[in-house]
């Protein structure tokens, strides 16, 4: 079906099309046709066909001629101003500084708006007016004001182009009032398309019943395009176009800080927040973790909010059903209905488990570019939950947690902190000794087992990546193995078990050295690494035994350590038996001797 | 826009109160009450919506529950930010929960939020600790709405949310927001630009 469509008129629009196909699971079937129709309208708004190039030929789907006014734009940005629109060649360009100072105050609020972006109809554009006045007086170039930028536009492509000219890092976005301008643009485009498609507002008034109550969808609903759907499509399109200007491409310092802070709490369990373990361990919770982990790769604030809300919804619903089942029957009048008292700790645990990348950027992006209407809904609630979770992990103190075993807080944090700083575990031994001497109960339910960690990724220079880490020789016992342009590595690891389930695997950073994306610049210490692998890397943990178990793993943190001595020290310090579920005798760490047979 | 149809107003309502006062039950009772024909499909959870039909208007609540435990207390302002109404729940059998409720009342006094105080678990009259009249006097003094409710029997639950709906100011905020987007950019800017330019 899609093969027969003519190729889209502009490269940007491929995007929208791909997205709709990709999202067909969540778009109700009867909306798909409308998605395509909105898309074709957007194409026209984006750039009316070659026939409509002149000023005269305007259709319903043409944006009014608008001027984007703003502060002086960055020097590097090219000029978008149309040659025919800019002052006529040959005219003396007299630069006037601050002529437009009179526009620097908003007459309504009397606030300084000199730094803000404005979008006005050309008819009302002060530049055009002054130029006209100047022309009538015979003064040319009256409106050339170097202190402000002025971009006349004729279609959506030019507006987006004009918006892209401004430096829009996070501080600037607020000063520019970019959120407001984008909102205006989305509303304007939606209105134009809505008029064109004659989306009837009357239909909206029909009370839409709960779809679950009706076995069939009413025919008029099938035929009816929804304004909400239209606005979503338009806003998604506009944000996709501007995404790389609005959302940082690399984690910011704050992102990294929050990432590490959440990382520190990886050991937090439901009991620490007085939450029933069963509520936190649902299939939906794992699904939510996966959803949250891809937040930073989404390309519009609405999609981010949607995913956050979805993650929130599925976990609370699953937990709620579980708690109701546990009570036998749903008794709403009982004293303990499921509510935020359970939902918040649950979401905190999920955020900690997911520890999404660039979380701070995602949250502030989603907050800045959503309407106040949206902030009131479930999506807004999910955003508040996520913000609370981040705030909680920032401020988390020992007194706030329940059911801590003696020494648990200290040992967990010391362990994490030292791992993060890349401290040689040799210096850790006294601390560990202390906590085990506090009583055998201290680490009683933490067990361990050795595992094999297998990584496979694109070919890389092992020696070079190792020396970048400051390591001399690879710790990989088996390999490196080069096959089909893929590099395979395997090494021993150490798996901590808690509550008889594997909780975390540790291995030496030297194993992963060839696949690590890059070093993080002096964040906590210069030995902390960006805990990310190059995109094509696969990472598995193999639990040996009679029937070896293979589990996919994802990397949470990576620190350069002298591997085998550290792990042996840790093993000795834990001094607890290996997990009882392990029927085999654990070999000494470092001598697993399993060959990578991939 | 909706012509003769009823005006729909959306309000954010936040629930505050200690962990065991039954605020979640109160709202589940409200959201699942048998008085309303059309219900949003909800299972009891932290976020719910429910509508109240007044004569000429429909009030649609977006209800935000908050965690009541002490350890999350500092996070609560993130939830009540921008709320039109706050229902502060205490347990009539617990003095502590009432003290906590008073704390919330004074914290929210300075904001534009409409405050309602709900003394829950009135079905447990026998073990009452917080006297009704004392609270009534306090509520009058602070100028907040007060009702004693029972999530168990449903007593006063619908009444409470209906009363809030009646009292909430409905200054057609909805229409303003609708008109804003397009208006500011194109229509709204017109007189502004012309006005300050003054040369037209």
Automatic annotation (TrEMBL), chain A:
Residue runs in coiled coils: none
GO molecular function: guanyl-nucleotide exchange factor activity; small GTPase binding
Protein's GO biological process: vesicle-mediated transport
Chain spans, region Disordered: 75-98
The organism's place on the tree of life at top rank: Eukaryota
GO cellular component terms listed in the entry, alphabetical order: cytosol; endocytic vesicle
InterPro entries referenced in this protein's UniProt entry, alphabetically: VPS9 (IPR003123), Vps9-like (IPR045046), VPS9_dom_sf (IPR037191)
Domain VPS9: 252-402
Gene3D superfamilies (UniProt xref): VPS9 domain
Pfam families per the UniProt record, alphabetical: VPS9 (PF02204)
Entry protein name: Vacuolar protein sorting-associated protein 9A (AtVPS9a)
Top-level taxonomy: Eukaryota, Sar, Alveolata, Dinophyceae, Suessiales
Automatic annotation (TrEMBL), chain B:
Alphabetized InterPro entries for the sequence: P-loop_NTPase (IPR027417), Small_GTP-bd (IPR005225), Small_GTPase (IPR001806)
Matching SUPFAM superfamilies: P-loop containing nucleoside triphosphate hydrolases
Coiled-coil features, chain-numbered ranges: none
Pfam families: Ras
One GO MF term attached to the UniProt entry: GTP binding
UniProtKB keywords: Nucleotide-binding
CDD domains: Rab5_related
Descriptive protein name: Ras-related protein Rab-5C
Species this chain originates from: Cladocopium goreaui
Lineage: Eukaryota, Sar, Alveolata, Dinophyceae, Suessiales
């Amino acid at each position: 079906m899609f093969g027969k469509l003519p190729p889209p008129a502009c490269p940007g629009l491929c995007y929208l099309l791909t997205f709709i196909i990709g999202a067909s699971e969540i778009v109700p079937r009867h909306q798909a046709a409308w998605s395509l129709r909105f898309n074709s309208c957007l194409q026209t708004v984006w750039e009316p066909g070659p026939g409509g190039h002149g000023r005269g030929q305007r259709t319903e789907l043409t944006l009014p001629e608008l001027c984007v006014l703003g502060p002086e734009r960055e020097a590097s940005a090219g000029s978008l101003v149309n040659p025919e629109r800019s002052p006529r060649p040959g005219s003396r360009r007299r630069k006037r500084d601050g002529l437009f100072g009179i526009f620097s105050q908003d007459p309504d609020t009397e606030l300084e708006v000199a730094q803000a972006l404005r979008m006005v109809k050309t008819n009302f554009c002060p530049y055009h007016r002054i130029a006209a006045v100047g022309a009538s007086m015979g003064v040319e170039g009256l409106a050339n004001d170097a202190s402000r930028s002025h971009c006349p536009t004729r279609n959506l492509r030019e507006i987006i182009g004009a918006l892209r000219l401004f430096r829009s890092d996070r501080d600037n976005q607020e000063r520019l009032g970019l959120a407001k301008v984008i909102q205006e643009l989305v509303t304007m485009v939606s209105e134009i398309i809505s008029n064109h498609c004659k989306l009837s507002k009357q239909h909206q008034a029909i009370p839409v019943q709960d779809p679950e109550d009706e076995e069939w969808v009413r025919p008029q609903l099938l035929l009816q395009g929804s304004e909400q759907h239209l606005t979503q499509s338009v806003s998604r399109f506009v944000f996709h176009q501007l995404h790389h200007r609005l959302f940082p491409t690399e984690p910011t310092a704050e992102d990294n800080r929050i990432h590490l802070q959440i990382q520190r709490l990886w050991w937090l369990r439901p009991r620490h927040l007085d939450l029933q373990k069963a509520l936190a361990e649902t299939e939906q919770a794992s699904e939510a973790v996966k959803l949250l982990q891809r937040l930073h790769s989404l390309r519009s604030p609405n999609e981010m909010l949607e995913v956050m809300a979805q993650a929130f919804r599925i976990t609370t619903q699953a937990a709620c059903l579980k708690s109701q089942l546990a009570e036998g029957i749903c008794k709403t009048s009982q004293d303990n209905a499921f509510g935020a008292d359970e939902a918040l700790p649950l979401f905190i645990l999920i955020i900690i488990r997911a520890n999404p990348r660039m979380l701070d950027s995602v949250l502030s992006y989603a907050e800045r570019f959503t309407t106040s209407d949206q902030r009131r809904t479930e999506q807004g609630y999910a955003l508040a939950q996520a913000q609370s979770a981040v705030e909680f992990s920032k401020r988390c103190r020992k007194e706030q947690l329940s059911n801590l075993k003696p020494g648990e807080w200290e040992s967990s944090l010391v362990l994490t902190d030292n791992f993060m700083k890349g401290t040689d575990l040799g210096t850790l031994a006294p601390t560990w000794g202390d906590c085990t001497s506090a009583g055998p109960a201290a680490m009683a339910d933490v067990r361990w087992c050795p595992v094999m960690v297998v990584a496979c990724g694109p070919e890389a220079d092992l020696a070079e990546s190792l020396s970048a880490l400051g390591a001399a020789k690879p710790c990989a016992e088996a390999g490196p193995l080069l096959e089909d342009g893929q590099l395979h590595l395997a090494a021993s690891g150490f798996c901590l078990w808690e509550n008889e389930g594997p909780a975390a695997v540790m291995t030496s950073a030297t194993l992963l050295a060839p696949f690590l994306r890059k070093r993080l610049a002096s964040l906590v210490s210069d030995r902390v690494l960006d805990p990310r692998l190059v995109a094509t890397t696969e990472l598995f943990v193999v639990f040996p035994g009679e029937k070896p178990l293979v589990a996919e793993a994802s990397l949470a943190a990576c620190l350069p350590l002298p591997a085998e001595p550290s792990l042996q020290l840790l093993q000795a310090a834990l001094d607890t038996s290996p997990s009882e579920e392990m029927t085999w005798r654990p070999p000494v760490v470092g001598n697993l001797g399993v060959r990578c047979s991939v | 826009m909706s012509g003769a149809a009823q005006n729909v107003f959306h309000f954010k309502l936040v629930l505050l109160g200690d962990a065991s006062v039954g605020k979640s039950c109160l709202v589940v009772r409200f959201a699942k009450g048998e008085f309303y024909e059309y219900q949003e499909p909800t299972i009891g959870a932290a976020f719910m919506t429910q509508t109240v039909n007044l004569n000429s208007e429909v009030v649609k609540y977006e209800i935000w529950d908050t965690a009541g435990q002490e350890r999350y207390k500092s996070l609560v302002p993130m939830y009540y930010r921008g709320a039109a109404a706050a229902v502060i729940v205490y347990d009539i059998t617990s003095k502590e929960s009432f003290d906590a409720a008073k704390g919330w009342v004074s914290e929210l006094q300075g904001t534009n939020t409409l405050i309602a105080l709900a003394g829950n678990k009135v079905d447990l009259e026998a073990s009452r600790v917080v006297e009704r009249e004392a609270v009534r006097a306090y509520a009058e003094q602070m100028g907040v709405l007060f009702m004693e409710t029972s999530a168990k029997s449903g007593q006063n639950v619908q009444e409470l949310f209906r009363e809030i709906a009646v009292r909430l100011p409905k200054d057609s905020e909805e229409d303003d927001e609708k008109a804003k987007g397009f208006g500011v950019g194109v229509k709204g800017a017109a007189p502004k630009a012309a006005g300050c330019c003054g040369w037209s």
